[in-house]
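Render Xylose isomerase in 3D.
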Amino acid sequence: MSDFFGDLAPVRFDPEAEGLAFRHYDPDETVMGKRLEDHLRFAVAYWHSFAWPGGDPFGGQTFDRPWFGDEMAAARLKADVAFELFDLLGVPYFCWHDADIRPEGASFAESRSNFDAIIDLFEEKMEHAKVKLLWGTANLFSHRRFMSGAATNPDPDVYAWSAATVKTCLDATHRLKGQNYVLWGGREGYETLLNTDLGQEMERMGRFLSMVVDYKHKIGFEGQILIEPKPQEPTKHQYDYDVATVYGFLQRFGLEKDVKVNIEQGHAILAGHSFEHELALARELGILGSIDMNRNDYQSGWDTDQFPNNVPEVALAYYEILKAGGLGRGGTNFDAKLRRQSLDPVDLVAAHVGAMDVCARGLKAAARMLEDDALETPRRARYAGWESAAAQAMLGADLATVAAPVEAGEITPEPISGRQEILENIVNRYV
């Protein structure tokens, strides 16, 4: 145990409390026949919560954490503090990259030994804790060896190193009974075509993913394999730009039934989409797996990874998730970090508490909209014309047959209002 959080008590649901408390998130509240905790499946991100030093593109470390360092003792202290936070928040899940939890060794064998020791520690702690593993992943982007990518690297030695790293992390995720394994391709893309063989890199990436899927089945891992789309930053042209791009990639390599997506709100915005667009598209394509819940600063051009605080945005996201039947084995991972001026331990707790409340409010609003058919009734009315026999017949006819009644003067369309403002007003009644 550490004394990092001092005398902070576990956070409870108490709408009337003056201090740290959940005002909207009651894990046992039933919504649409399911406990709120089981809907939301909250997870703490190990990297931003415990490994991020508080830097930005123009300045370095602002956080002074007692576990910062390259020694195993520091990694063990970090784990102690992490599990204390999980307990304070009562979250059911957490997530990690390998580089978050262990110091880098002088060789692959040393790094793996460090990693295995922390996984041993996690396994021991998880036997006595509520928290479980939502997903594990490998950091294949921070170290200089990955400056030109991992699975897409022009150097086959880096490709092999990446394979060994993913194998190690997938083994550990399986050992800890993780619900998912995520492939986050932070540098799977290119800076310039002047030195890039685009076709070769995409083929290598497809083959790499196929190997991961094969290995999952070989070891009996029952969790989902997920790709996290991201359009840019740090790589200028990412091969996993957005949900649509990822789906096309999966189809090309015959993996659309084996791999789903972990969608982040901030990445959706960077791709020029809304979060709900990416969620709805993934639902319709059958590849919705899990979500990273954060937000970007709309005045900044990079991925600011802030904790969510916008209930209407969150409500529209969970609306699409509930329409999909929920998150299944996925969850709501807070891939979010404190502002670099938020130095105190209580800031880390308060950020998660506020975000969990925002998500609870959003999900409950989304559930009420669905239960009341507030949006689905007008949506069905807008497409009601397609229910007629004549309209259905068009879907099986050829082009000339469909065009014939128009050419004969029998059809003259009249525009019909989309009523967007009315629908926006309906949403606002719920949030």
